Amino acid sequence: MQIRRFRMGDEPALFGVFFSAIHEIASRDYTQEQINAWAPADLDRALWGQHVRGLNPFVVELHDEIVGYADVQPNGYIDHFFVSGFHPRQGIGRLLMERIHQEAASLHLNELTSNVSRTAQPFFARHGFELVAQQTPVRRGVAIPNASMRKALPAAS
């Protein structure tokens, strides 16, 4: 596995990771209605791609296939963190989390925050994130519960 920064043209593969993560993995913790509202097949790919380009995520490749991606913003917020639904439990998430922590250190951040799905909450907790609050955002008219989580980081030297 190798990790690198996003490159223009990665958007379709990243959408595949996003879509499969939700439809194949998160589907065990959400209803079909919630899954379809969160990651509809007819999602506007141009708008989605524009958003992902703005995130400038880290991308994990396995045998020249993109199998995961995640970002950390200059304020410490992790917007997207997805592992392909066809490649779970292979260390991809761990690799992404390690890279996010390296980036956080280089940015001299004192905390990381994210809105985390029910499915990902145990993973984030294993990596030192604490629950701040349960919340229920609405997408396309459907409530999709998640949690606000944060992790305090060691003081930057």
TrEMBL record:
Signal peptide: none annotated. It holds the Pfam family Acetyltransf_10. It comes from the Bacteria. Its EC number is 2.3.1.-. Keywords: Acyltransferase, Transferase. GO terms for molecular function: acyltransferase activity. CDD domains: NAT_SF. Residues 1-154 form the N-acetyltransferase domain. InterPro entries: Acyl_CoA_acyltransferase, GNAT_dom, N-acetyltrans/Recomb-assoc. It is an enzyme of class 2 (transferase). PROSITE patterns: GNAT. This is GNAT family N-acetyltransferase. It comes from Polaromonas aquatica.
